[in-house]
Amino acid sequence: MTLSFEDFPPGPFGSFGPRRVSREEIISFAAEYDPQPMHLDDEAAKHGMLGGLSGSGWHLCALMMRMLCDGFLLRTASLGSPGVNELRWLSPLRPDDELMLDVEVIQSRVSNSRPDTGIVTFGCRLRNAGGQILLEAVTPIIFKRRDSDAA
Amino acid sequence: MTLSFEDFPPGPFGSFGPRRVSREEIISFAAEYDPQPMHLDDEAAKHGMLGGLSGSGWHLCALMMRMLCDGFLLRTASLGSPGVNELRWLSPLRPDDELMLDVEVIQSRVSNSRPDTGIVTFGCRLRNAGGQILLEAVTPIIFKRRDSDAA
């Protein structure tokens, strides 16, 4: 079944994962997109503010997106997203972390400009096995409304 | 020379690029982190809202980060970032786009809690060769203050 706007009423939606992140993945993402020493090199990272190798914050965002896709987004009538309202990196991503993603629907409303669609604002939270929150994001996603299939 | 907090007064900072993005890169990022049909498959993308293959919004963010690193961030006393205040995906990333990144300093202030550091809030804008804005982001980055070297 394809999920539509109507399937996302405000409230807790679900938890997804775990997704284990290896040292190799952390270094490989950083080498391509965020080659700062604390994301690439154990020795340099030891002397940095985070006291050891940590993943790029953008790597965390990309992992969150993959977990959203596998969790439910690929089974929806999603029309994309205009952006992210707020994004906070709260604790560093470490090698071998096992990530869980908690998703809630903060707001859900029919679009004024395109009434065959609705905008669902999600609150997303990535945590590690120790319960530390690594990332919080508030992001709207646009979905088709179920009634719009006939249109 | 390593750039410190004092090197980022409010105002225009610089433009960086171009960075060309291939179809292969777009598909490879999407396969790993955002496997929605419009980012993976020309045929599926043709029937989608964006009318043709487009890159993941998170790929754009990762590319922005790399351009920030190469542009100036790797030559700074950066201590990382607490997050992103606002992120807007305005136009789709297309195969063979040549990206330019415009950076301005929106605000620059000494940290209250850690007076040896300062917080610089950047406005970042990614545009293609046709002048379309693809992404806008407002993001704070923490830097050491120059005077703090002696501490």
From TrEMBL, chains A, B:
Q: Which Pfam families match?
A: MaoC_dehydratas
Write down the superkingdom of origin.
Bacteria
**Boundaries of each MaoC-like domain copy?**
18-111
Checking CDD domains in the record gives: YdeM
Coiled coil regions in record: none
**PANTHER family the UniProt entry points to:** BETA-METHYLMALYL-COA DEHYDRATASE, MONOAMINE OXIDASE-RELATED
Name of this chain's protein: MaoC-like dehydratase
Q: What is the lineage of its organism?
A: Bacteria, Pseudomonadati, Pseudomonadota, Alphaproteobacteria, Hyphomicrobiales
